[in-house]
Amino acid sequence: MSPASKSGKSRFVANTPSAHRSGRPKDTAKHEAILLAARSLFASQPFDLVTMEAVATHAGVSKMTVYSHFRDKETLFETIVATTSDFMIAELSGPDQGGGLRERLIAVGTAFLSVILGSDICTMAHTLPSALRANPALAERFYAAGPGRVRAALAAMTAAAAKRGELNVDDADRAADDLVSLWEGSMPAKIAFGLAGLSTPEEVRSRAERGTDVFLRAYRKD
Predict the structure, then answer these.
(1) Alpha carbons 188 and 72: distance in angstroms, whole number
(2) Kindly report the CA angle at 174 between 119 and 166, in degrees rounded to 5?
């Protein structure tokens, strides 16, 4: 399940406030084009090899236009990470409105995995660490914009379930880590290394169900 639609438009861009609308400002269209081009480049080659010039070429805009929207490559990548996280956090908060705990967790897990197991996310997660080893401050910046925010949202959801008496949790952050690990398994690494293909919607839901069931056996309150 790829984050991009058949038309090539990323749902992470399309679902942001700058989404496509009739009569939208031209600079908004260019902003989206830059994000889509950069996302494609970051997913297809190492972070260090992506240049703002290449982003401009792929977006069909001038280099000056790219710099007018994003002051540097790091800010551009950080925006992509944050936008992806915005989409995921919105999906995480949506299903937790009713139904049993198991059903809510499965819905959240399915939404989470549909993003995490996308080809571009897996590739970026595999290639990015090598570029950040020499720059811990940048690594912290990217983590805070993306994975850190998502993990915090999952921890809050877990803590809320514990407060309702549905889970026996003494460390919500650790429980959230356990839940994510059970959902993901080794699939992100296998996809990044080309050892597994993208999951179908049915496979994604099955993985979410299995991970949720194991999690509940460990954490459900008696």
Answers:
(1) 28
(2) 100
Contact between residue 115 and residue 86 where contact means Cβ atoms under 8 Å apart = no
Check if CATH label 1.10.357.10 holds for domain 11-219. yes
Tell me the two tokens of residue 117: 């197991």
The pLDDT value given to residue 128: 81
What is the DSSP secondary-structure string of the chain?
--SB-TTS-BHHHHTSTT---TT--HHHHHHHHHHHHHHHHHHHS-GGG--HHHHHHHHTS-HHHHHHH-SSHHHHHHHHHHHHHHHHHHHHHSSTTSS-HHHHHHHHHHHHHHHHTSHHHHHHHHHHHHHHTT-HHHHHHHHHHTHHHHHHHHHHHHHHHHHTTSB--S-HHHHHHHHHHHHHTTHHHHHHTTSS-PPPHHHHHHHHHHHHHHHHHHHB--
Among 68-72, 99-103, 136-140, 170-174, name the one with the lowest average pLDDT.
Answer: 99-103
Region 13-24: mean pLDDT is 40
Please compute the mean of the pLDDT values over residues 203-215 and round it to a whole number: 96
Distance CA 77, CA 145 (A): 10
| CA 188 to each of CA 4, 110, 173, 183: distance values in angstroms, whole numbers, following the listed order | 17, 14, 21, 11
**Percentage of the chain exceeding pLDDT 90:** 48
Q: Judge whether 92 and 111 are in contact, CB under 8 Å.
A: yes
The domain spans of the chain are 11-219
